[in-house]
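haha ok so turns out i had the wrong file open the whole time. this is the CORRECT one, sorry everyone. sequence first:
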Amino acid sequence: MKEKRIISDVIRSPHTANTNTGRRPLSDVLRKGDIGQSLAKELEKKPLLKKPDVKHVLPEHNVHHESSVTPNLNKSKSFIKKTAWFSVPLVAIFVIYMMISVLFSGADLKIVPKSEQVQISVGITAKKGDLKALVPFETVTLSEESSKLVAPTGTKDVSEKAGGRVVIYNAYSTASQKLIKDTRLETPDGKIYRITTGVVVPGLSVVNKETIPGSVEVIVSADKPGEQYNVGLSDFSIPGFKGDPRYEKFYARSKGEIKGGYVGSVQTASPGAVTAARNELRTAIKDSLTKQVSSQIPATFVLFKDAGNVTFETKDDVKNASGVIVKEKGTYTGILLPREALAKEVLKKSIYTLKETGPATLKDLENLTLVFQSAGLPEMLAQAESIEFSLSGTTTVEAVIDFDKVKKDISGKPRSEFNALLANYSGIKKLKGR
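then structure:
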C-alpha cells in the first residue's frame, strides 16, 4: 500500500516534550551539556580567595590545583568574565537547538488512506472532443520513416516508369465528371502521364459566393519509362478535352514528386532478404513510436497500450551501386482519455466497499485491459468520432483525502491525539508520526 506523506507544522506541547524517547530534559542542558561542562571546568581551574563580598564559593573538592601558586583574585575575575562572554552565547545556541529539536520532533507525518483491490469489468462510451460527454477523448498521431540497406546478390536490366499522385479539379460545373482509366494528363512541357484507375471528379460548389472546385486524388504513371519523366511539383491539363469548354476548367496538380523512372542496369537483392529487412524495420518503427507517444502523455490523461494502432506504408525501394535500400513508414494513432473523468465513470459502474467512505479514485488505471467494441477499430481510429470499449482487470480503489484540511486539523496537536482525528476522516486508515 502506497502511503501519502505530508510535512505538517506539528508543534509538540511543552508539557509532553520530555516524554519523547531519547530527548534530555531542558534542565539537563546546562547541568550535563558539553558546553556547560566546559564552562564549569574553566571556572574550576583557579581557586577563589574568600572575601566578605563573595556570595558563592566553589566547594573545595571541585577545585582543580594546577600549581602551588595562588593567583590574584582580580585576574581570576577577569578570566571568568572573558570566559563567560565567550561561553554563554554558545550555551544559549545549544539550548535553543535542544528546544527546537524537542518541540518539533515528530513533525513528519504519514497519512495512510483506506484502499481495496477491486475487480473491474465495465463498458465505456467516449466521444471525440465532446467536453459535455461523460468520457471525452482525443486522438494522437505520430509518424516515423526508416530505411535499411540490403546487400546485392546480382544485377538486372530494368525499364521502369515514373509514378506519383495528382489531384484533378473540376471548376467547370456543379455536375460531376467521370474519367476512365488511362485518361491522359499533360505537363506544360508536353510529358504525358496516365491515371491508373477510373475516377469521378465531383462538381464545383459555391460557398459564401466563392466558387470551390470539386476535386479527387488519383495515382498516375508516366506514359513511357525513363528518368526524364521524374518531375517535381507540376500542373497538368487534360488533352482529351482540347477543343471543348471543359479544357480550361479541368486541370490537375501533383501532390509531390513523380519519380521512379529508370532505364538501365540495377543491383538486386534476394526477395527473402528484402522481406526480412522490411519486417525488421516495421518492428523497430512500432517500438520507437510507442515509446515516443508514451513519454509525451500528460499526467492528467491515460493512454492504454491497447488503445493505439500502427499502420505501415511501404515506400519505393532505392537501388544503387551498394545494394537495395528498403524503406518503411509507420504511423501511430491512439486515443487519449482524461484520467479523472474515466476513473469516475468506471467507479460509478463498479462495486466496491469504499463507496461508504466518500470520494475515491482508481490507482494504476493503465494496468487495465482495453478492448474495442466498435466495428473497424483500432484500424479506423483517426476517423472515429465515437468509440465503445471495455475495461477489465484488477486495480486499486483508494479513498480521496483532503490533505490540506488534515494538516490544518493536526497543527498544534500532540501525537497522542492523532488517532482521535480518524473519527473525522472515514477515508483515513491510520496516521503515522515519525
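The first helix runs from residue 26 to 32.
again sry for the mixup
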